[in-house]
Amino acid sequence: MSKAKNGLEIVLYGRTKCHLCDQVEFAIQALAEEIPLCLQVVDIESDQQLHEEMMLVIPVVAINGEVVFRSITHVVTIAELREEFLKRMAD
Asked: In principle, which of 8, 42, 61, 78 could form an S-S bond with 27, CB 3.0–4.6 Å?
């Protein structure tokens, strides 16, 4: 998947009542003020396969269809998101 017409296609995989997922969602929404993007939030608990695949690594961020950040050793920061979004906008 390439860039959306108006920017990046971002999918945030998480679940309700996940404060780390909320933090990443707020960071992405803040970045949307400066970088054109479309955010979709997916609750992994609504899909058994997604839940099994991602339950230990949420929040997960996909950019233009590619999973870029999984929260394995740390949760992605706003600075890391900004850097990756700007890099992909320049491509």
From this structure: 78
Measured between alpha carbons, how far is residue 58 from residues 19, 44, 74 in Å?
A: 11, 9, 10
In the chain, which ranges are E strands? 8-14, 37-43, 60-63, 66-70
**First and final CA of the chain: distance in angstroms?**
13
pLDDT in tens, 39-91: 999 999 999 999 999 999 999 999 999 999 999 989 999 999 999 999 999 88
Cβ proximity of 28 and 17 under 8 Å: no
Determine contact, residues 89/7, Cβ cutoff 8 Å.
yes
Partners of 29 in the β-ladder: none
Buried b (16+ CB within 10 A) or exposed e, 12-24: bbbbeebeebebb
Q: For the full predicted model, state whether its pTM sits above 0.85.
A: yes
